[in-house]
Predict the 3D structure of the following.
Amino acid sequence: MIRVKVEQLFLSNVGFAVLLKSLGDDRSLPIMIGAAEAQAIALHINNIDVPRPLTHDLFKNVLEEFDCRMKRMEISELREGTFYAKLILDADGDELEVDSRPSDAIALALRFGSPIFVNEEIMAEAGRVFSEDDLKPNTPKDEHEEQPTRELSPLEVLNKDMSKAIAEERYEDCARIRDKINQLETFKHSHS
């Protein structure tokens, strides 16, 4: 297993991705993730507290109530282009393995301060070495060129979620996202 860290969260032309950088060499593993998981990771990376626990915070709180801690998470398999992960938990001295999507496992590992590992075979197959230029946002030469890949702020993630919910006429989701945006803006203004 190769220990990695969350190097960057970004929006590519195909969706959100998290970049896991090896602590032992120059390889990185990009993994596509959903908007909700990107938001959960971004909020934690940017040290933004929310007034009420979100799903990953809630799950961490429940585990802690049962004296269960997360020892580590592992990205253990890559099958047909899909990454599989597992949570390695310590429940009163017993080690438990729980199947998880990598995005959820990463969000939980960050909250627990637990190490993140990638199977060597997966890193060999799907990892790559990125140059600094690969990770910098590109400036489009004209309006028809694709928008740059760059790290999103939590507020940008929420606004993107809001636009999608409006387009799909999911008005209950819009109200929930609006409330999160208001909470985030209130938090930012009270701490500036």
User: Anything to note?
Assistant: The chain has two domains: 2-135, 154-190. Confidence is low (pLDDT under 50) at residues 138-145.
